[in-house]
Amino acid sequence: MIVKETGFGDSTEAFLENRIIPGVNIIFSDDNNKGKTLVIQGLMYSMGNEPIFPSGFNYRNYMFYSKIESGGTEWSLLRKNSSMLVLSNGKVIAFDSISEFKHYFHSTIHSLPIIRKDESKKIADLALVFQLFFLPQDKRNTSNVFNSGYHKKPDFYEMVYSLSGSDPVAMNKTQIIEIKDEIAKLEEERKITDRRLKFSRSHPKIAEITHKSSDRKSFEAKRLVLESINRRISELGKDRAREINRKIKLEQLISELNSLNRDLSTGRVICADCGSNKVVFKNIDYSFDVSNQFVRNEVLSSIKNQIEIKKETINEFTRSLNYEQDQLNKELESTPKSLQTILLHSEEILSDVEIDNKLTEINQKIDELKRELNTSEKTKSDTKTANQNVIDVILNMMNSIYKDMDPNGRLFFDEIFTKKGETYSGSEEQEFYFAKIVALSNILNLDYPVIIDSFRDGELSSGKENYMIEKYLSLGKQVILSSTLKQEEYTSSKYSDFIGVNAIDYSVNNTSQILNTNYISQFSDILKKFNIVMENG
Amino acid sequence: MTYEFKFTEQNAGRASDFETKTLLYLLGIDQDRSEISIVFIDCFNDITGADLNCESLWDFQSKNVSKLNPRKTGESLFTLFWNFSSKFEFRKYALFIPQPKQSYLNNPTSLEFGIENFGDNKDTIREGLVSEHLRRTKVKNLSAKELKQIDLFLKEVVFIIDRGEKYDYVMNLVSFKDKNLKPTKFYSEIFDEIRSVQNDKKFRSIHNLAINKAPEALSFDKHLHVREITSLVVTRLVGIDLFKRQAIPLGFLPEVRDLDHNDVKDLIQKCNEKISRAVFNKNSKENFWRFLESAISKLLTDPELSCKRVYDIVTINGDKRFSHLTGSSGVYLISLIKEGFEQ
Known about the structure:
The complex is a heterodimer. Chain A is built from 13 helices and 13 strands.
């Protein structure tokens, strides 16, 4: 992916940068406030980045434009706030949010890494992806991602892993727990089945009897009798429990009703004129009480009566239960011992073959699930190793670039972010970012330009500056850098002397006035392609 | 066209059982009872019935004197006559009295009759009325026109004889299933409740106030709506049967159609529990009566509606805070009332 043009403005003022080449570009000036940062941030913003404009610049009022090329196709992008227009092959597509645009970007312009965030797969946000190759002048932070908030360090790692080819969606925690549960269930079932097998083997006679057709009939009859007794017992038990429950509720009701109906005995309102305790509020239209003593007494005595009836019913259920249990015992007594065992276990008795089949089936299922789990664990650990390898390779390269540039340097990188509180001097920070961006670009084979606003920030020595420019040239990809020169080092040919560097001098721009009327007609021509006609244009 | 409250009882004593009987006679026995929606208590007279818009009025004077001779009878007619000669029109002028001595009457078994049943005693009655008129209005003589008025009045006035015990009158108020099976004490207690409310209404003095139209008298709060009394009796009848009945009321069957035996039992018990809480809760009076009155009126005007439908209509703007009668328990209560009315 390369950048071809960028610009921003509105109907009264505009700026357009169309001198960018596919190789190394250095935008420089002899002073600050010549608009370098606005152009570079404007470019990133037009592609969907979060706004990191210098304070005082009201980006919400302007439209940001860029033309990029990806996969041999040209795309013109135009953004105002969170609305995006994309123009390609004469067609304009509109997006109301950057998320929408992100999905289009991923599916049509340039594929984006898929990361796992909040236990689900997600296309990495543009603002995160851009941090792979873009270094802003402000809000730098060596120990974290820029603008950390929604995006966090682990997301950056996830993105790096994803780009190195690891699958972000092996198996998530809940799936693993589900599988483990399933296995536990099956193992329990296996135990029971196993027990049945043992039972049938230790009672060979039973198996024999159950298969003799002559015995089968009497056995069946007996079984039916026992089953019906058992059913009655369980039904009676249920009915009795419900009845007990009802009785308890009625008992509670009595005490509740008594408290509901209690008059306040602490005092009584009386009429000051006549002394009557019948004080009526005029606005109440209803003269009568909801009940009288007679009704209340009747209700309470009916409830008590009901409770008595329930007690009797419960006793009756208990008697019936006892009776049925006696019946069951009698039935069992009149049954030969061996048959008793069969009857009691009739549900459990299957033929050897049946049990065997079942066991095999369970075993197969358990094996399958365990395999699945192992594969996942293995993939997970494989992935983990692979991921660490990627980071190691990146770190190696960062360290070797650093050593190469600064053989006496005291830094050693053991993470792609520094530890919190670890502070770098101005030039060290610049070296760290340089090493990191180059290493990421090379190792991950990134198809993005390298964009660094203020690439020699922090009093970088000329030797190191030259080293960096040479290194950028050797990358063989598009690089866009910006740089502010001090008066004494400024010559207009400072960078054009490097072979292959496209030096763009912003010194001629009026200070703090990059936007001007000269570009209005060009800018409005571009807008016309998006079908936007400016009112004053 | 003013009506001045001149002869109301200034020193209103406790409402007597007899006055309550008069009230209940009017609502439960009088041939015009179905037209009466409102009863004024100690307003135009001891008891005055009115239709919904107070366009028709029925005037009752209650006189509980055990030995009521013809002269006293005549004296008792004064307030009725006063109303007769007022600008307001009344459909009926009635004197409610205990059984007079047999000798005073031509036909002693008649319970409701005109003055002719007094035979020759009617002149003494007329004398009594005239002398009471002179005494109350503090004049020496009545004009010929006034005497003519008295004659016209006496032809119209009706004498009604008290015909039973307190509970008889209450039992007559509503036709409801099994009402004859309830103990007399049950009805006596309702009778006493009504008397007590009647008593409260008597306390409000309106002496010397004046109105132009009968409905204006509603502002004195000396009246009862007939629907209040109906709701009262129905609620008491349903109330004493809570937790007693075995069968599921027909109107409730759709609610239990898909439940098994045990679930039905639980649901019915739950409904009984909630309704009993409602009738024991002294603080939910307004919500309770509002629910009851609209349910009863809907059931009476539209007997074809299902209980669930009646419930939905009653609660459509209803106060959801009245949780005791929300959902099944409300439908159950309505189905009990519906069944009672259908007897």
